[in-house]
Amino acid sequence: MTTYSYDAVIFDLDGVITKTARVHAQSWKVVFDDYLLYRSKRYKEPLREFDISSDYLTYVDGKPRYQGVKSYLQSIDIEVPFGDPSDPPDKETICGIGNRKNSIFSEVLRKRGVEVFPKTIELVKALHEKKIRVGVASSSKNCQLILKSANIDHLFETRVDGEVSMELGLTGKPEGDIFVKAAENLGVLPARSVVVEDATSGVQAGRNGGFGFVLGVARKENENELLANGADIVVKDLGDINMEIIEQWFQKKARPLFQEWEHPTSKSDSLPPKGPAGGEIFINPCQLRAGKDLFSSGKKFVFFLDYDGTLTPIVSRPDLAVLSPSMKEVLERLMKKHMVSIVSGRMREDVQKLVGIQGIFYAGSHGFDILGPGFSMIQPKAKETIPVISTIIKKLHKELGDIPGALIEEKKFSVAVHYRLVEGQSLARIQTTVERIVSKHENVRMMSGKKVYEILPNIEWNKGKAIRWIMKALKLSWEECSVFYIGDDVTDEFAFRTIRTRGTGILVSDESKPSSADFQIQTPDDVKKLFEKIIAAA
Hints:
This protein is α/β, with parallel strands linked by helices. It folds into four domains: 8-19 and 114-250, Rossmann fold (3-Layer(aba) Sandwich); 23-111, DNA polymerase, domain 1 (Orthogonal Bundle); 300-379 and 461-537, 3-Layer(aba) Sandwich (Rossmann fold), CATH 3.40.50.1000; 383-457, 2-Layer Sandwich (Alpha-Beta Plaits). The strands form three sheets. It has a nine-stranded mixed β-sheet with strand order 7-20-19-18-9-10-11-12-13, with helices on both faces. A seven-stranded mixed β-sheet has the order 3-2-1-4-5-6-8, sandwiched between helices. Strands 14-15-17-16 form a four-stranded antiparallel β-sheet, covered by helices on one side. The chain is globular. The protein has helices spanning 21-43, 52-60, 65-75, 94-112, 118-129, 143-149, 162-168, 177-186, 200-208, 223-228, 243-250, 257-262, 325-337, 348-355, 380-384, 386-400, 426-439, 463-473, 492-499, 524-537; strands at 8-11, 133-137, 158-160, 193-197, 213-217, 233-235, 255-256, 282-283, 300-305, 339-343, 361-364, 369-372, 375-378, 407-410, 415-418, 444-449, 452-457, 481-487, 504-508, 519-521. The protein is 40% helix and 16% strand. It starts with 7 loop residues before the first strand and ends with a helix.
C-alpha cells in the first residue's frame, strides 16, 4: 500500500461538498432586502439592495450566521443589538435576522433537496480507500441536516459545524478553530492534514490553523481572492486534484535562496500546471517569487528568528550555543532598520540573556512566554501545565539521569531531553521512557527535533501562534509588511505554515528535505550573510 505524507482531508460543506451556496446566497438576499426595505420605510433611510456578487462573498460567505449578519450591517453603517440566539425571526436583532435567514434556507432545502458535487464525492471515496481520514468543518448549523438530505453523512468521520462550535465555544472563521477541532477528533495533526475551502474566510482559517495544505475551490471565479487570502493552490473543481498531487505538495522542498537570488527562475516545480481532468491549477504567486525580489518590495520588513541552529550553530550542549560577537553586531544593525523578534524553544529569560539586545520581542518556550517593548503575555493554558511539567522533570531525572550524555533541559513550560551525546542501547531506552511518561499525561505532548525529545503542553499553541500574537500586539498588517521567519527545526515548521502565502519562510539546513519554507540557506553563517545583504540594500 502507498504511504502518504498526510493523514486527513477536512472539507468545508457549502460550495465544496454540496451545491447549497446559491441557496444560501439567495436566502441572505431575501432577508437583507426585506430588512433594508423595512428600514427605508421606518427610518427614511435610502433604499439599498443586498448584492450577491459582492456583498455575499465579502461579508457573509463562510462565516457563522450571526457574524455574517453583523459583518454586512457594519459595512453599510447599520448597528442593531446582538440579541439572543432564541430571538424570533421577526425581531430586529442580529440573532433575529440570522434566524430568519435560517428559516428561509430550511424551507427552500425541504422543497428542493440537496445536490452534491460529484468530483468531491469521488475524491472522498478515494481517500477512504487509501485509509486517509475524512472530516467536514462548516460554519453552518444546518450541516448535519444537509449531509443527511444528500445521503452522504456516512462518508465523514467527524463533523464540526455551527452547532458544535456553539456548544464548545469555538471561534468562527477566519480563525482555524473548527478545522483544528476536526483534526483533533480524527486523531491527526493539522500539519499533516488538508483543508478544502471555497471562501476567503475559510482559506484564512486553514492558514491560521497551521494546516499542511490549504486548497481553494473557485466555484465563483474567485481564484485570485482565495490565493490572496491564504490558499496554497486553487482549482475550479476537485476533479482537477487527486491524492498524488496532494502528496506532491507535501513533498515540496524549499528553493535555494542564494542560487535563486543570482539566477532567478521565477517558477515552482511543486505542482503540475494542469490537473487530471485538464483544468488549470492556480499556484499561489508566493511560490513563484524570485529570491532577489524578496527584499525589494518597499514594504516594512519584519523578521522573526529562531535561535539554536539559526543564529548559532547546533552544538553538543545547549549552554554552549553562544551568539558570536559578529552575529550580534549584525543583528543590532538589522534592528535599526527593521523590526526583529526572536522566537525560540528555549526559556524566554534564557534566550533573552543569550541574545542580549534590548528593544526587540522575545518569545520563549515555543511562544508560550512573550515579552517585548510595552507588551507581555504568558499563554494561560500553558501556565496551568507548569505543575505537570515539574512532575515530569523529576521523573525524567530519576529514570534517565544515569545515562551518560543525556541532558535534561528544564524550561518551565516544557522540558527537552537531548541525546546528541548518547550512544548505543541507551537511545532506545530514552525514547521509550519519554513516550511512556508522555502517555500517562493527557495535557502534554511530545515532539521530536534534532537529537532531542521535547515535552510540551498539549494545547493549540506554537511558534506560528506566537508570531500572530506579536503581529496583532504591534498592529502590523500582513498586507503592509514583508514578514520573514528564519528557522531550522521541526518546531519552526509551525511558523513556516502560518506565514506561508502572506510572508516568507527561510529554512536553515544543509540537507534537502520536505518543508513548508519557501527558500533555504545552509548555515548560520548564511543567515549572517543574508542579513548583511539586506542591510546593504536598505
